[in-house]
TrEMBL record:
It comes from Aureimonas glaciei. Belongs to the NAD(P)-dependent epimerase/dehydratase family. Dihydroflavonol-4-reductase subfamily. The keyword Oxidoreductase applies. It comes from the Bacteria. Residues 31-267 form the NAD-dependent epimerase/dehydratase domain. It holds the Pfam family Epimerase. One of its GO terms (molecular function) is oxidoreductase activity, acting on the CH-OH group of donors, NAD or NADP as acceptor. This is Dihydroflavonol-4-reductase. Keywords: Oxidoreductase. Coiled coil: none annotated.
Amino acid sequence: MFAGVARLTGAWRRIQTGTEGIGMAGDMDRVLVTGASGFIARHIVLDLLREGYAVRGTVRSQDAAADVVAAVEGQGVSTEHLDFVPTDLTRDEGWDAAVAGCRFVIHAASPFPASLPKDRFALVPAARGGALRVVEAAARAGVERLVMTSSVAAVYYGHGPAEGRVFSERDFSDVDAPAISAYAVSKTLAEQAAWEAVAGTGLQLVAINPALVLGPLIGGSVGTSARIVQTMMRGWMPVVPDMAFGIVDVRDVALAHRRAMTVPDAAGRRFILSGGSRSLRQIGEAIGHDFPRYRRKMPRATLPDLILRVAALASSSAGQMLPELGPAKQLDMEPARKCLGVVFLPPETAIHATAASLIGHGLC
């Protein structure tokens, strides 16, 4: 680990001083991964390094870069071909340096706070502005293809109940819907802006739209999605709303990003990722089954919808949960299966891996 940190420190200093030839990797294809310290991005970085790519990550601080190096090396993978560039989604500086020499870009960075703001557009400047900065820098640099980490939140919100409807790559969320969350608004507008920005350029774009992402932690950082499992395991969720979500294992998400970079037929498409749907109660039951000592801490009752609807009158946070009430949305995963060749792990595998990681890191 210390050798990796030493390499990181040297690379970081060369980046900061503008030295040429940072992170040179011979004939290896280099991939820029934005927001490299995030939960999904760490798995993407790990997967790419294992497959022989050189990786450049964007982070906001040297400490974040050091965490990524330690996490990757903790998985037994060399960081010899991993370097970093300091950037910020809200600033123009650094993006041209980040994309320089990269054949591909994976734009995984996006704001996803633990608690959502009341203003539905509060996350848009960072999400949409950041997407445009990355797309425009990639186009200027002659990047071949950009894969954007979007979300099912950019697909199915605001369409109202439609029994039997299957949401597909053709659907976008309605950002003017009354109960849509700030996160869904930011993901929708950011992805739409990216599609508009690549029009007329030589840059190919692919969007990856995962459902709730669970799976093993790389390092001790707990993402927003994993906090659902962590909260249950701490016994802080004795009663849950009647909600169900699509769940996808983060390892499948990383695989889908890598294949989306190179599969010819993936260009210009969106891919919804989900291994199946489970309710909050079912998530708790799966944890209790696999980890019996946590069984008593799992949710024991389902909150009536009426209570949440009444709470939504006074709480914007409760209001943003209303679109998730009831059965899970039906999602079309056939493009990901057929075009990208993803064979999805079942939700229980992702739930188990999340819980096991939390226990292993002493986080619950």
